[in-house]
Amino acid sequence: MELSNSLEQLKEELETISNTDTNNLRNDFDTLQKELDDIRRREICNSATSLNSLSAELKKINTKEFSILQTLGVEEDECVHSNFLAWLLDPLENHGLGSLFTERFLTLATQKMKHDIIDLSQISLKEMLVDREISSETSRLDIRLMDSKGLLNCTIENKILSKEGIDQTNRLYNDFHGICPNEIFIFLTLNGTEKPINQNFLSLTYTELKQIFEDLLEIATGDTKFLIKNYLNTLERLIMSEKFNGYSERTQLYYRYIKQIGEIRSAYETDRRLLLNALADEIKQREWWNESTWKMEKTGAYIRIFKPEWMPKDDGVYFFLRPWIEQPACDLQVYGKPASFSTKFAPILKRKIDLKYPGKMAGDFIKRLTGINTFLENILKFSLTEKDQVEKVLKNLDVMVDQFEKILDESIEEFKELK
User: Is 63 a residue whose pLDDT tops 70?
Assistant: First the structure.
């Protein structure tokens, strides 16, 4: 009887505790829900305020000054913008600025070049020839600048609100590369949001050119000054409009959680650094590694492995390991740089690889023997729960060395003999 009473009392106490915990949990949940609702309302209000401010700024620009291009309905016409640029770039045109705009434009472009930097002092910018809409076998360029002595070729692909056509920059590069000893390929857009497919194209923006136009206003006179001032007004409207159109729901979500995204990105960078450090340590323990034969360069983003004879200066070929940002994966590549080396080396390497590995694949590696930069590639994807990612990369690196070390040795020797 006492045991029965005790059990009944215990049951009542447990039910009381359970009810209390349930009520507390429900209250906590209701409080959290209310806080989240309050945060959401504030964030929506703040986002609306920011967007309204941006809209007001855009409206102010739209009504700021008279614009010839807007009045004629050709403000977004790429041909009109290309014609205006070609007019300013031609030193012999009647704008009265001589080669000033040409010099500023090319200086801005060359400052962005990472390799094969061009010395403009060796080129007569006052004798530049400017052409429009030149067609070749597979492409048509927008603007071309070439000096009268054939030392420099500058090809410009101009984009206002359109995107790159199918394989467009690759076709342009293949058709117009190698015409002059010095060359610049420029992909010109409003804000740089659209990137060229071909890595030999420099990304240049009207946002950057805007400062040059503003400086020209201080020098230009008469009709030229009037046209540049109108054109600047057009650029302000187009550049601001493109920024405004970018505020999609996803963009608003990004700004809403930008702090958290930054923390996540920081965590990823830490993990990537740890992965690269572990790989660098373990690579030197592989059977094929020898300090007298192999060299390694490691940054926070990638590892390069090569033999000194493959990279006599800062040009040549190497094995490239790069963890991705876009997804959990690591990219293994046979990579050449710069493009001037790669385009000459690619046919030799292609012939030797095709002989041993016919078809599109070379073992697990995709062939990309286009003569741009990446010759071979194997993307190793990780699952989020995968533990031994280092060993997975190392095993594939072993295969990479085994398959291509001798081929690269032979290709480099043949390349040296051609030189």
Answer: no
